[in-house]
Amino acid sequence: MKSKITVPKSKLKIVFTVIIIVIISVILLELLAPFLYKQINKKPFQKKELQKRLFHSKQTDEAIIPDPWEGRLPDWVGNNDLHPYIGFTYHRSSRNRYGFAGLNPLLKRSSNKINICIMGGSFAESLYINSKQELKEYLKKSNCFADKDIEITALAMGGFKQPQQLFALTYFLFLGAEYDIVINLDGFNEIALPFAENIPYQTTAYYPRAWFLYTTKSLDIKSTLQVAKIVKLREKKEKLKRFFSTSPMYHSNYLLFLWDILDKRYENKLRIENKKLGELFAKRNYQSFDSNASMYKGNKKKLFEDLVYYWKNSSIQINHLSQSNKFLYFHFLQPNQYHPGSKILSEAEKIHAYTNEPYKYKEAVLLAYPLLIKEGENLKKENVNFYDLTQIFKNDDRTLYIDKCCHLNKLGYDHVSKEMASAIIQYVERNR
Prior knowledge:
There is one protein chain. By secondary structure, the chain is of the alpha/beta class. It has helices spanning 9-41, 47-55, 57-64, 75-79, 122-139, 164-175, 188-198, 211-216, 221-244, 253-283, 300-325, 347-352, 360-381, 410-430; strands at 80-83, 87-90, 113-120, 149-156, 181-186, 328-333, 385-388. α2 (47-55) crosses α10, α5 (122-139) packs across α14 (410-430) and α9 runs antiparallel to α10 (253-283). It starts with 8 loop residues before the first helix and ends with a helix.
């Protein structure tokens, strides 16, 4: 007969005591976590906000890391081709034969057709991709356009900034393009990209974005090793996020608090390593023979004043082209979430489309958008059909912005299209 195995009562008591201690410790940690979080971060513990940030933490990186390409060679450097007149275009395999999205830009006029060309950076390109049909429908509500066949093309591309729009338009007019209406939707890239991507690397402010990367298309050994170091850190940060986002871990106050501490530690490390990468870039001989970067060292006011002046001058030159080539020109200043008082941010926008951290794009908007608005009024005095769209979302609390840069969802782009169509219709009807 088999004997029963018995556990001494003393050992059971120890096990039971350990379990009780563990349970009490977990409860205490859960209760203490919000208090500790508040002491460290100087703001209340908000569990839902941390959970949302945990699941979307990758989107917060660009708000922390100074370099817009987040410590790696940006995808657009590899996906774009150099162009002798307009800087760069997309690989033709992913766009039309000229490297732009959508319809071939070489449109020809006919009696019953209206050819519209949209110019600008990624904001304008995204509007073209997402809302060109809506723009067409809004225009057709007017008797001026109701019986016309409207064709819309784009000379807009991510990263374009003046004078690239001016040069692109000039080049395609040279190739024989015939437009009835040209829309220039810009402003943000003109002040943000030179400030964030050219001047820090001793590159002329008016050259295409990050021109030193386009012209090298490669890195030296030290820079390559530094990029690899940053990539490894980002992988560790992402792995940590995946670990803590598994259920039921993300329900724990303490584990959310712990993830927040570790995640911010990686953010700080990435900030330091990105700075080192920037220093390596700056040491290389990227500057052009006419680089004006040094004249703006420590003088942001002068930089933004000049950037806005050349933005305005580019628009004036396009207006001159409109007169000689017989098309209507409309210039719109794009909205941006960092322009104070321009949008009631939704909860989703506060998480995914806004940052209180150091961010050069945000700094550029805060310092230079008032200058753009002011010079926009001066454009009107130069007989340019200029429209300031920075306040079109002023009383709108819907979620429209989708990232921390400037871009919108389809709802937002449809709204912009409607405002542009309204301005065009009013002008055309007034001048019939």
